[in-house]
Amino acid sequence: MTEGFVKAASVSDIAENENKAFKLGDVDVLICNTKEGFFAVQNECTHQLTELEGGRVRGCFIFCPLHGQRFNLKDGTPIGQLTDKPIKTYPVKIDGDDILVCPEPAGAPTGAGPG
Predict the structure, then answer these.
(1) I need a surface site. Which of 14, 52, 77, 78 has the fewest CB within 10 A?
(2) Over the range 46-60, which residues count as b (16 or more CB within 10 Å of their CB) and which as e?
(3) Which among 10, 8, 40 is positioned nearest to 24, based on CA atoms?
(4) Total domains, the chain
């Protein structure tokens, strides 16, 4: 495995345009599968602090299931007027069928394609 990264899931666990939450130590991470690869973000909307798990994934965006607040999965930027606070993003790597996530937040894009 890559240093600093931990296995969060298998590629086969999350269908395209779907998401699933995982606990990595004290960090609640949401992994989203998009056409551009896998992205990991905090599993909490910065609008009303509700879970993002189960929200719609469209392109490289996640929509909060409560009020529809949209966040860019690449950098956490909110789009819309409900909040101006970004969500945290986490680096992702794919190793075979394993989705590896670094539980330390990053400011750079976190997408990882297969292989």
Answers:
(1) 77
(2) bbeebbbbebebeeb
(3) 8
(4) 1
The DSSP string of 40-108 is EEESS-TTT----TT--EETTEEE-TTT--EEETTT--EESSS--PPPPEE-EEEETTEEEE-SS-BSS
Cα–Cα dist 80/16, whole Å: 24
In a domain, 73, yes or no: yes
Domain that holds residue 18: 6-101
First to last CA, the chain: 13
Do residues 23 and 35 lie in contact, with contact meaning Cβ atoms separated by under 8 Å? Answer: no
